[in-house]
Design goal:
- There is one protein chain.
- The protein contains eight helices and seven strands; from the N terminus they run ααααααβαββββββα.
- The protein has 250 residues and is an alpha+beta fold.
- It has two domains: 102 residues; 142 residues, Phosphorylase Kinase, domain 1 (2-Layer Sandwich), CATH 3.30.200.
- It has a seven-stranded antiparallel sheet with strand order 1-2-3-4-7-6-5, sandwiched between helices.
- Helix 3 packs across helix 4.
- The two termini are 43 Å apart.
Length: 250
C-alpha cells in the first residue's frame, strides 16, 4: 500500500468501515510511514474536537420534549421551513469547517517545505565546497546552469549595491532540480533557491512574503512560473533588498 491508497481509505478506517484485511495493511503502512502517521493523528484530533463540540451543546430530555410539543403545534409549512433552515446552517458550518482545516493543512505543508529549504541552506554553509561554479560574474554563473536545470532565470546587476555574487550550485527539493545562488553581504551568506513552481507539487501553495525558520530570515514569491526562496542569517531588510533586486531582474 502506498501513501495515496492509505489516505484514500483513511476516513473509512477511522469510522471502522474498512475491511479487516485492508485495515491490517493500512496499519502496517502507517507504522512505517511518518507522514501518514501524522495524517492519522491530525484526523483523529479533528474528529475528537468535533465530537467534543457537539457534546457541549447536547440538548436535555426536557428541552427535547418541550421543542417536540412546540413543533407539533406549529403549522406544517413552518416545520418544513425550520428544517430547511437547519439543513442550510449545517451545510454552511460543514463547508466552513472543511475550509478551515484545508487552509491549516496547506499552511503546515508550506511551513514544512520552508523548513526543508532552510536545511538546504544549512547544508551549503556546512559544505567544504559550497558552490559548483565560483564566480562574481553573473554572465559566468547563469550559463553554467544551462542544460543542468529545465528552466532559465535572470541574475540582477549588483553594481552599486552591498551584495556580491559568490557562485552557484545545483539544488534538489522533493526531487525537483533547481538552482542555488550564493550571495554575500557584510560576511553574511544568503542562498537564493529557484525552482519551477509546478515541480514542487504545491509544496508552498500560495505562500508569499517574509517568514522565519530556525535562525534564518526568509522571503518567497512566484514569478514567471518560478518559485524563489531567499534565506540567510542577514537582517530582514537585507533579505528584502536582495529580493527586490531579483524581482527587478526577472
Amino acid at each position: 500500500m502506498n501513501c495515496d491508497q492509505a489516505r484514500a481509505e483513511l476516513e473509512f478506517y477511522l469510522d471502522g468501515e474498512l475491511a479487516s484485511d485492508r485495515t491490517r495493511e493500512l496499519e502496517g503502512h502507517v507504522r512505517a510511514c511518518p507522514e501518514c502517521a501524522g495524517e492519522v493523528l491530525r484526523s483523529v484530533q479533528w474528529k475528537r474536537q468535533v465530537k467534543a463540540a457537539g457534546a457541549m451543546y447536547s440538548p436535555s430530555a426536557e428541552f427535547r420534549e418541550r421543542m417536540t410539543r412546540r413543533l407539533q403545534k406549529a403549522p406544517k409549512k413552518a416545520w418544513r421551513w425550520n428544517w430547511a433552515l437547519a439543513g442550510a446552517c449545517a451545510l454552511v458550518l460543514a463547508v466552513f469547517g472543511f475550509s478551515m482545516v484545508r487552509r491549516s493543512q496547506e499552511r503546515l505543508v508550506a511551513e514544512h517545505t520552508l523548513s526543508e529549504v532552510a536545511d538546504l541552506h544549512v547544508a551549503t554553509l556546512a559544505s567544504a565546497s559550497p558552490v559548483d561554479v565560483v564566480s562574481t560574474d553573473r554572465h559566468t554563473v547563469k550559463p553554467w546552469f544551462q542544460g543542468r536545470i529545465p528552466f532559465t532565470f535572470n541574475l540582477p546587476e549588483l553594481a552599486g549595491s552591498e551584495f556580491s555574487l559568490v557562485g552557484g550550485r545545483m539544488a534538489y527539493l522533493r526531487q525537483a532540480p533547481g538552482a542555488e545562488l550564493i550571495f554575500q553581504i557584510r560576511k553574511h551568506q544568503i542562498s537564493v533557491f529557484i525552482f519551477q513552481e509546478h515541480a514542487l507539487d504545491d509544496g508552498l501553495g500560495s505562500l508569499n512574503g517574509p517568514s522565519h525558520q530556525l535562525t534564518f530570515n526568509m522571503n518567497t514569491w512566484t514569478q514567471n512560473g518560478l518559485r524563489y526562496v531567499v534565506v540567510g542569517d542577514a537582517s530582514g531588510s537585507d533579505i528584502a533588498s536582495l529580493s527586490q533586486l531579483l524581482k527587478a531582474a526577472s
